Automatic annotation (TrEMBL):
<dbReference type="InterPro" id="IPR000701">
    <property type="entry name" value="SuccDH_FuR_B_TM-su"/>
</dbReference>
<dbReference type="Pfam" id="PF01127">
    <property type="entry name" value="Sdh_cyt"/>
</dbReference>
<keyword id="KW-1133">Transmembrane helix</keyword>
<dbReference type="GO" id="GO:0016020">
    <property type="term" value="C:membrane"/>
</dbReference>
<keyword id="KW-0472">Membrane</keyword>
<keyword id="KW-0408">Iron</keyword>
<feature type="transmembrane region" description="Helical">
    <location>
        <begin position="100"/>
        <end position="121"/>
    </location>
</feature>
<keyword id="KW-0812">Transmembrane</keyword>
<protein>
    <submittedName>
        <fullName>Succinate dehydrogenase</fullName>
    </submittedName>
</protein>
<feature type="transmembrane region" description="Helical">
    <location>
        <begin position="63"/>
        <end position="88"/>
    </location>
</feature>
<dbReference type="GO" id="GO:0046872">
    <property type="term" value="F:metal ion binding"/>
</dbReference>
<feature type="transmembrane region" description="Helical">
    <location>
        <begin position="21"/>
        <end position="43"/>
    </location>
</feature>
<dbReference type="InterPro" id="IPR034804">
    <property type="entry name" value="SQR/QFR_C/D"/>
</dbReference>
<keyword id="KW-0479">Metal-binding</keyword>
<keyword id="KW-0349">Heme</keyword>
Amino acid sequence: MSTRGSDAVARSAFERGSLRWVLQRATAVFLIGTLAFHFYLLHFVNHAADITLAGTTARMGELGYLLTMVAFLFAATVHGVNGVYNALVNAGLSGTRARVVKWGLIVASIALLVQGLRVAAAMSPLINL
């Protein structure tokens, strides 16, 4: 039996059908697919002991693999930050604190994306900077 009153309403930062709601679900589906690809490729095709810097560089030299990893970076960032913000709002964060947290998460996301793109560029022979 619940200790909450019958008039308790679950709060959510997501409105069904909103852009953030759709992004959370779309990125979840994409992440499940790419994680399955990752586990298959890096745990069944190539075993962990066989993973080398040269092999990783070779994989990042394939356009499809590079684009998949960059898409994964963006999807994971959007999904994670969106989920953290939603959890905080669900826990009662609102007003000025919510705006400060939102902008802090946006800045952290941009930093994560920039660093992730720098690593992808450094690891890929397709990108000459």
